[in-house]
Each structure stands twice: as C-alpha cells, then as structure tokens.
TrEMBL record:
Taxonomic source organism: Hyella patelloides LEGE 07179
Keyword list, A-Z: Oxidoreductase
Name listed for the protein in its UniProt record: Short-chain alcohol dehydrogenase
GO molecular function terms noted in the UniProt entry: oxidoreductase activity
Membership in a protein family: Belongs to the short-chain dehydrogenases/reductases (SDR) family.
GO terms under cellular component: membrane
Length: 244
C-alpha cells in the first residue's frame, strides 16, 4: 500500500516525549512535518526535544505534566489539546517498568504501575476524544508490550498493565470507529531505553540485541501515515533475534 506524505494539518500529542521511544517518535514525526505537543515530567529535557523538532521546521511546544497524578491528567491533556489546537494524533507512550514476583509486589507498587501504565492512558484518551469527535478524525496510538500477551517471570504487574492497554485500545477502536477515530496498539519487544536504568527494574539483558527507539518510532509513524480508510489495529515489533 502506498503511503502518502502527511498533510501539514497533522498535529500530535506525544507523552513520555523527553527520552526513549517518545523522543525518537517526536523526532521522526518532526522530520515528516507533523507538529508536536510534547508531554513529560522534565521541562528541561522536553524543551531540548522541542528545539530539535523546531530546527527541522515544525511547530513544537513542551508541556510538563506528571501523568502519575492520574486525577488531573484528563483536565491537563484537554487543556493541552485546546492550547495547541486541532490535535488529531495522540501517542500514549509514557509508562514505567517494574520487576518483582507477584508474591513480593506490594499493593502500593501494583497501584503505581497500573495507574501510570494504564489509567493515565485512559485519562489521556478522554482528554482528546471530545476534540477528535468534533473534528471527525483522529488516530490514537497506545504503546503496549509483548508482555501483554506473553508471561515473563517477575514482570507480572507490568504485563497486567500492558494487557489492560491492549483491551482498552480494542474497545476504543470499536466505540470510536463511527466517529472517524482510529485506535492502534503497538507492542514492542525489548527496546534499549532508559527504562532499564530505573530503580524499579532489575533485569540483566543484552541491550545491544534490543530494538532501538528509532525502529519503534518508525513503526509508530507508519501507522499514522496510512490513508484514512485503513488502520493497523495491532502491530508487534520484535528484535530479529527474538525475545531476550
């Protein structure tokens, strides 16, 4: 299928845009002429990404938001969509890694993973849906994981959160199809991002064998550039060497 160049009217919100997959997606979108509203906790890192996007020639604004504060996410994303204007793409990429056996996972840890990896995505979606419905078009890409459909020891809470993202996206696709809104699941295998350096992840894997953020970003971009009459409902992107 031939992919047309994106119209200049494409305007995207990307969460977790200060590093990893989010940053790579922002830069890939910028090179394709897509204007950007960048969301993450770190305003300094966000602005660096925004500056890089502006150098390519697109409009880019940074919005410092802590998506872990789920009670305020819907309102803040709605305000971003209003401020940035005519948002028709949302990439829900922000999330956290977590490793521990189910037996040793505390309730507080469980809730933290579910709230950031799943509930915040639900709230981001609710924040943009009214505008997308009004305009009769939109594409929402939710970054899940192969852990949604494959059980890995000590990745229980993480896997459950990503399985929730898959179910959420499939339901969204059915509910919003008539409103011209496409919902996409992108499930990567292991990706070499800063998630492996966080305090909540304890895993010793060969990071050189992992996917790069840029590979996943190109996959996300591909789903956005499809003509309106087509949709990639679910995409799995794996390292060629298989699961690590």
């Amino acid at each position: 299928m031939e992919i047309n160049p994106p119209p200049k009217s494409l305007r995207a919100i990307i969460t977790g845009a200060s590093s990893g997959i989010g940053k790579a997606t922002a830069l890939a979108f910028a090179k394709s002429g897509i204007d950007l509203a960048l969301v993450s906790r770190s305003s300094e890192k966000l602005e660096a990404v925004a500056n890089a996007a502006r150098e390519v020639g697109v409009e880019a604004k940074s919005y410092a938001v802590d998506l872990a504060e789920v009670a305020t996410v819907k309102q803040k994303i709605s305000a971003i969509a209003t401020d940035f204007g005519a948002v028709n793409v949302l990439v829900n990429n922000a999330g956290m890694g977590y490793t521990n056996s189910l037996e040793n996972t505390s309730l507080a840890d469980w809730q933290q993973v579910i709230e950031l990896n799943l509930t915040s995505i639900f709230q981001c979606i609710q924040g943009v849906l009214p505008l997308m419905r009004k305009n009769g078009k939109g594409t929402i890409i939710n970054v899940a994981s192969i852990a949604a459909n494959n059980a890995f020891p000590e990745w229980g809470a993480y896997g459950v959160s990503k399985a929730g993202v898959v179910a959420l996206t499939k339901t969204l696709a059915i509910e919003e199809r008539a409103n011209g809104i496409r919902a996409v699941i992108v499930s990567p295998g292991a990706v070499n991002t800063p998630i492996w350096d966080t305090d909540t992840v304890n895993a010793d894997l060969n990071r050189e064998a992992m996917l790069t953020p840029e590979i996943v970003a190109q996959s996300i971009l591909h789903t956005v550039l499809l003509p309106p009459q087509a949709v990639i409902e679910e995409m799995t992107v794996m390292p060629s060497g298989g699961a690590l």
